[in-house]
Amino acid sequence: MALGLEVPPAVAEGAWIEWRPVRPPYGPHQQSAAGRRAAAAALAAAGSADRIVSRDPGGRPRFPRGFAGSISHTDRLAVAAVVPGAEAVGIDIENATISPRVTEFVLRERERRVLLPPVTRYTPRELFSAKEAAFKAMNGVGTLGEFLFWQIELSQSDGTLIASYGGERIPVWVRSEAGLSLALAIRR
Amino acid sequence: MDRDIFKVVDELFCRRLQVPELDPDAPLVDYGLDSVRAIELVVEMESLFDIHISDEQAASMLTLRDAVAQITASLAVPVGPESGDA
Fold this sequence. Notes:
The complex is a heterodimer.
Chain A: E1 16-21, H1 28-46, E2 54-55, E3 61-62, E4 67-73, E5 77-84, E6 88-94, H2 100-106, H3 109-115, H4 124-139, E7 153-157, E8 160-165, E9 168-177, E10 180-187
Antiparallel strand pairs in A: 1-5, 2-3, 4-5, 6-10, 7-8, 8-9, 9-10
Chain B: H1 3-17, H2 35-49, H3 55-60, H4 64-75
């Protein structure tokens, strides 16, 4: 059985995605270490000689030049995505239950009305994860100034989830399986 | 720092983060705070203290002390300018 979720080749074109388990006792240190191991593996698969992911002063992972990347983890699982040549990438995994109050906080009234069932198949957790992934991809570019992930607006166009902020738009792919949601946003 | 507010927020954060104690000046992410729990804490604090926490305030709550400071500020009764007519 695969460790994480599969990403369709059409979505993951040019992307290297690696999963690593979090080791006991599953605390913040172990989660971060699993993320770094996943990132190193993704960088190796993508052909990067440099496999060290440092952190910028804001705590964001800093991938080697030319290898846009992103890391996410739950308390038991970490994933990293590297897309050589891309401008930025954002990946997010989520296994938490998103309460109605958190849904209301993160999704605007219009988003709740047009993106949640029965209008679409998306769950609150998938949309939460989509905003997180889009934020990482948009924030990584650094031209949009300071903003918060829930300020990103989601919409749907031709069956594709689109994240927008500050005039920038980026497609986001999401799926869920066995209590885990995965979102991927690539800014090519 | 308001001791009563500190006590309530400290207990709330310790319970949600499942830790016995918190260093008021340590980054909350060091205790495993993720985005879901961060927002849960924001909405819970809004309910507990009957306040509105703005996006900017929420974003600035990086430590327990930050959170207490923002709540204290939100609870402060705004004082308008003296009318001078009384």
